[in-house]
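#structure-requests
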Amino acid sequence: MNDLNIGSFTEDGPWEIDPQKIGWKLISEELNAAAQNEIDTVLEPNKIPPLFRTCEIIFGLTKSIGKWYLVSRRKDKSHSYRIISRNLKNTFQRFGPTYVKLGQIISSGEGIFPDELVTEFIKLRDQVPAEPFQVVRNTIESDLNRPLEAVFKSFNYTPIAAASIAQVYDATLTTGEEVVVKVQRSNIATKVRQDLEVMKWIAPFLVGRIPITALANPPALVEIFANTIIQELDFRIEANNMLDIANVLAETKQRKIVVPRPHPTLVTKRVLVMEKLTGFKWDDVEGMQEAGINTEEVLRAGMISFFEGAMFYGVFHGDLHGGNLFVDTKGRVALLDFGIVGRLNQVKRLAFMRLLVGALSNQLDEQIEALKELEALPKDVDTNKLIKELKLDQPVVDPTTLGAEEIIKEIQQLTKSLLGMGAKLPKELMLFAKNMLFLDSAIGKLAPNLDILNEIINISTYFATEHGERIAKEVGFEISEKDIDIEGIKASFGLTSDVESITYKEITERRNKIRQTFESTKKKS
């Protein structure tokens, strides 16, 4: 098909994509601008939130936190954190879809949010009841402006997925193509806007008041959440995201990643009809290997395409997790759910490239300057002072050799220094970090015996060979195999220079050792 030139799709698609003839593609800039205006309106300073909903949320949070404060706070820290995490999870569930969505985002932030919080909020991923099908039918018929039977030959009334924003169904068009239909929940847009206004108003009062979320920065989290969820409320934006990422994959010749084709005429603000793709679930490693699929290659293709999209095109899938992708019988990764996409403007894209290249070559000053451009650090931060204060210029210490008190002291000092200098986590970096954490866990599933250091060198060499000239032109310094600082890479893992190789399995063992050290300290405190 001709559309393979402009997107990484399957070869035998049910229809052809021509961006110049798709109505919702032609107005993509207007849709994004409208979404941004809405975000700005919701986040407007000093805006008074809806009174009734505000009282409902305040009462629920007060009850949840108060119960913990009076009963469980004085128990050992690990148990105490589990209790407040469970209380917050139950409260978010009662608050409804907007808060469930926020909880789901938090649940995929392992390493960013506390383990206890992530563990509890993971339960929100599959605890969203489906809406009655008559409500779904009404949305479809209203948006497509015709009866359901006029569009679909068959429609499975039982959803294959029921998420916080939408439900997903299998169906067959009257023209015979098998499709997947994503339908937005009724009245969700109004509920989301009201809840965001309440969140924004309450967030500043939560700073420092809930120990388990102290480092999460509630106001910043609300801002990030608003920037993602409001765009998710318009499926035309999601369909455009699909085409943009498919195009990036085609441009970089990453045909091991495919995107389902959105239907040219059956996409509205609340309904998204797309090509149906099938394959192995992401965690079905045994099934993939029995089918002769090289899971290491699957993983490598995913990592390379993720970096290429961000570095060279400023766009990447912003919500990678096991439910959003699977692997087809040809060993290709199928990407799903493009409601959350990271986008970097030209300045931030170049800064992001400098950050990654600087990390490979261990150029600390380049990395810090890049973080300033990405707005993770204030522009006036003294680079040399930061390097010294964070002890980045000192020999690496293996954290597995330290006691719990020493590790806690180091973390507290690091946190104090960063916060004191005004460090924050912008939306793009948070999405990137979330994806990196997912890819980290994916190594454990798909390639636990992979030599991590050797793999980093292989991927780095690929970028130096395939993109070295462009990188040199855009960031001002070359990156070649000889420029890769393996000692700096080891240091980022907390490894000393005598370590020659390490598998993901061994890294996991090191992490477990550190975690056990912390757990033993929590029990004593």
